Amino acid sequence: MSNLDRQATPTVCGGRGFVVAEPVRELLSPRHVRLGESTEVRRLLPNLGRRMVGAWAFVDHYGPDDIAEEPGMQVPPHPHMGLQTVSWLHDGEVLHRDSLGSLRTVRPRELGLMTSGRAISHSEESPRPHARYLHGAQLWVALPDAHRSVEPHFEHHADLPTVTAPGLTATVILGELDGARSPGTAYTPIVGADLSLTRDTETRLPLDQDFEYAVLSMSGEAEVDGVPVLPGSMLYLGCGRTELPLRAASDAGLMLLGGEPFEEEIVMWWNFVGRSHEEIEAARLDWMEGPRFGEVKGYDGARLPAPALPPVALKPRGRVR
Fold this sequence. Notes:
This protein is mainly β. Helix content is 4%, strand content 48%. The chain has a single domain (23-259), classed as Jelly Rolls (Sandwich). It has one helix spanning 277-289, and strands at 11-14, 23-28, 31-35, 39-45, 56-66, 74-80, 83-91, 94-98, 103-106, 111-115, 120-125, 133-142, 153-157, 162-165, 168-177, 180-181, 190-197, 202-206, 212-219, 222-224, 227-229, 234-238, 243-248, 252-259, 265-269, 272-274. Strands 2, 14, 15, 16, 17, 19, 22 and 24 form an 8-stranded antiparallel beta sheet that branches. It has a 7-stranded antiparallel beta sheet with strand order 3-4-5-12-7-10-13, with no helix packed on it. The chain has a 4-stranded antiparallel beta sheet with strand order 6-11-8-9, with no helix packed on it. The longest helix is centred in the last third of the chain and has 13 residues, at 277-289. The chain starts with 10 loop residues before the first strand and ends in a 32-residue tail after the last helix. Pfam families: Pirin, Pirin_C.
């Protein structure tokens, strides 16, 4: 998914200097952003107080939206570099096209994982016809320097491993949780998991104490380490945890995001993750004028133009403002 904000601002993040090295309970509120004409998302990362969770650098939550009489998601072709996109649905379908020629419909609880590497472009749209409801999350993972110029590729995994306990099913989207590993390609120590809790469940989820974590609420009423987390909000948890208490007052859906704190400092602007102003500037020019990002064939509409760069040089700094 693209950052469609026409007044795109640079985000500087990464580095270990601002990692919370102990358990905390920091509730993050979303910023509401329009994607096209019919989709509004709640942006949790980057946030005013928190820029990354492990290598997770961007989190949008959208829906559930009734799109029975609407076109639904319509995100024109746009570029990416230096990151992976993770598409995750609870309801609906998203048709993915990219400049490699990939054409795939991603459905609920299936992993759509695109590794941009040095350069790729793609589009995302609700297919015609489509389901009545659209509900999901779109996330980005920053690629470390050693892998950020890999060949771009797209993966689709419909069969993902699960971790179960009474009242809990955890689907491992990316990385590893409690010995279960996702087939999706990961380039840093990371975890992403979809947590389904049944009503009146109280349980504890095992964690890696060297990771930092956050939990995104997708639906229902749940408490995470005693903190009520409403749908569309995210609770940052810091590091140093070996387990996570969970309680559900109703059937609830959560996403666990975590990973080893991302050591490198990065610059994230529009749909690019780089290391310097010059690199971002060159990527923007390549999208507007060159062949580097390829062509998305089959999308009915024009590709997305890049916004103007800010008047000051972009500089990588810390993980929080």
